[in-house]
Amino acid sequence: MPPAPAAADGPAARVLVVGYGSTLRGDDGVGPRAAELALEDDRLAGATVLLRHQLTPELAADIAAARLVVLVDARADAAPGSVSVERVGGGVAAEAAPGRVPRPDAGATTHHVGAAEVAALARDLWGASPEVFAVGVGATSFEVGDGLSDPVEHALPAVLDAIAALVRERGRA
Amino acid sequence: MSRTVVIDPVTRIEGHSKITIQLDDRGEVVDAHFHVTQFRGFERITQGRPVHEMPAIMARICGICPVSHMVASSKAVDDIMAVEPTPTGADLRRVINLGQIVQSNALSFFHLSSPDLLFGFDADPAVRNIVGVARANPQLARDGIGLRKWGQQIIEWIAGKRIHPEGIVPGGVATPLTAEVRDRILDGVPEAIGAVERAIAWYKSDMLRWEEEAATFGNFRSAFMGLVDRQGNVDHYGGWIRVVDADGKPLADRIDPKTFNDYIGEAVEPWSYLKSPYWKAMGYPDGIYRVGPLARLNVAERTGTPRADEELEKFRWRVGRVAGSSFHYHYARLIDTLHAIERIEELLRGPDILSKHVRSYAGINRNEGIGVSEAPRGTLMHHYKVDDDGIVEWANLIIATGHNNMAMNRAVLQVARHHVKGETITEPMLNRVEAVIRCYDPCLSCSTHALGQMALRIQLLAPDGTVLDELAR
User: Fold this and answer.
1) Which of A103, B226, B262, B268 would staple B296 via disulfide (CB 3.0–4.6 Å)?
2) Which one, of B330, B324, B221, lies nearest residue B282 by Cα?
């Protein structure tokens, strides 16, 4: 049995937003910061919002309870302050390829798992395949520090708009 | 407010880690090093901060076990304030810390190590992972996820919901426990015990498959260190430091954790940012010791809870009173988890657990403080010095992964000697080097504060340093 969804009503019912990253590594903290803002955004009322340091396997249980999942993270390979939306798993595509086992993007000792892995776990353990989207924010600096760079700070409204757009377009699909 | 500290040489932060294996003129393995090239800056970036901020700052070292750092840090600040937490405050810290032990041990065993144990060390890595486990043994995968969630819920319900909990504070905890939260946690105890007992039964039924690995995975004589209570039983929060040798003979007992600097030295090697703590009386590098679940069982008389003690008896019957092989960290980790669950239940059923008196208050009464507790991977030590206004002037951390640094190097060397034949690195060897490191469950973000994931790279070196072969995963 997958866990029961945390929120039963609101425009974003059964939407899961996970902002992840280190809040002491500069722009890597954009995911948690966006998640904090998501908690106060009326367009996302009813969504389950989680702030995490990194993705870990038990998120599969939360994903299994959701209809739409949005993961927010910094990107080192994108223009500073740019906001991208990419589908990373779940939905019809996953069901069409049940034999696919995502290779972990983890090394020998890391405790991190990838977005595709946690989505696959939700599917294999609870038969749930919600659509999973990654909202990426181009980062400037990952140096030690507890603030965001100007380009990333200025991108936060666009990040929230991107999440809200996904909820509007996909949340009730 | 933004605060940036530049640390040189930052370019090495992305270097992560690598393993080098050194051959002699005859092609025999003579040395092996587990290089950690990530850099931890927490001792530096906390300088100049008010000491009461330390628990919250130190929690950010790691997303896996922030509570462990909060506990050790809060104890260090207690010491600086010369204050004892209230009994209920201390018990709630214990519960939160044990929740941390449960969730982190579950991650290590179920998600990182069970793929090796289920599929074999030489199975295709595309299958040998947690997603593969979910397909082959969904009950095992669900049990792991369930234990992780239960442990994390304990932390979130008592200590706060954000990434890094804020409920553990100098002097105790921030808020009293409610009956509703206590009962909600207790409701999950039977399922948590069921999950870990299923895993223990599965592990024991499969142990004979791994006799060769148990013999060659970091199977060597060393000392062991852990915290014990008045009865000499496992204590994850307080008590005394006990160190035993490879035969179980005490090297030191009832050591006040605040005096650890008298007994433990820290060596620095040019090839790693990870320090090498050693037992001073034995010198460096002979003073090698291990910490973590295996060490906790090796140093203690018993765990102190019935189900875990029953399993401990079977453990000792199978592997001896002092288990020398690092492979047995897996088995020990499961028993450690079972004990933690039982202890959580005991503490939550205590008569004063709902007391409103959960925090003691005091100012700066000392200029130096030390806090020691057991983290999932072993004994964790925080040591701070402050000025008269409580501003941090100096900090030093000895992390469990650091304590195990020399042991991990020894283990890698043993595996290399067993598996390296000729001038090439084979896949079986790579697989086993990965696996032997996983026994210790090193958390490099704790020990060095890593950014991102860590890939494994192994180099085989000729006597003149020439790279003969290299494999990466």
Assistant:
1) B226
2) B221
Q: Give the Cα separation of A115 and A133 in Å (integer).
A: 9
pLDDT tens column, A74-122:
998 899 999 999 998 765 434 333 333 344 444 434 445 678 888 888 9
What is the spatial distance between Cα B291 and Cα B298, in angstroms, rounded to a whole number? 10
- Orientation of helix B66-81 relative to helix B138-159, angle to 10°: 30
CA B185 to chain centre: 24
Instruction: Give the integer Cα–Cα distance in Å for B155 and B173.
Output: 12
- The rounded distance, in Å, linking the Cα atoms of B132 and B117 is 12
pTM of this prediction?
0.86
Residues of B in contact with A111 (CB under 8 A): 63-64, 107, 112, 443, 445
ipTM above 0.85, yes or no: no
Q: Report the phi/psi class of residue B78: left, alpha or beta, with left for phi > 0 and alpha for psi in -120 to 50.
A: alpha
B434 contacts A53? CB cut-off 8 A: no
What is the rounded CA–CA span in Å between residue A69 and residue B48?
41
Domain range for A163: 11-170
Q: What is the CATH number of the domain that holds A165?
A: 3.40.50.1450
CB contacts < 8 A (A, B): 138
Find chain A residues with C-beta within 8 A of B144's C-beta: 57
Alpha-carbon distance B261 to B241, whole Å?
12
Average pLDDT estimate for A22-38: 91
Farthest-apart Cα atoms in chain A, separation = 44
Average pLDDT across each block of 10 residues of chain B; the chain has 473 residues. List them in order: 29 48 85 70 87 88 79 97 97 97 92 88 82 91 93 91 74 96 98 98 89 88 97 97 97 96 92 88 95 98 98 96 95 98 98 97 97 96 97 94 91 86 77 82 52 59 82 70
Residue at A6 is within a domain: no
Across the interface, whether the CB atoms of A56 and B148 are under 8 A apart is answered: yes
In a domain, A142, yes or no: yes
Residues contacting A113, CB < 8 A, separation 6+: A55, A56, A57, A104, A105, A106, B111, B130
DSSP B43-71: HHHTTTSBGGGHHHHHGGG-SS-HHHHHH
Q: Check residues A158 and B30 and name the one with the higher pLDDT.
A: A158
Chain B residue with the nearest C-alpha to that of A148: B2
A50 falls within a domain:
yes
A132, part of any domain:
yes
For A122-140, how does the pLDDT look when each residue is reduced to its tens digit (9 = 90+)?
998 999 889 999 999 999 9
Q: Count the domains in chain A.
A: 1
**Nearest CA-CA partner of B143 in B114, B123, B117:** B114
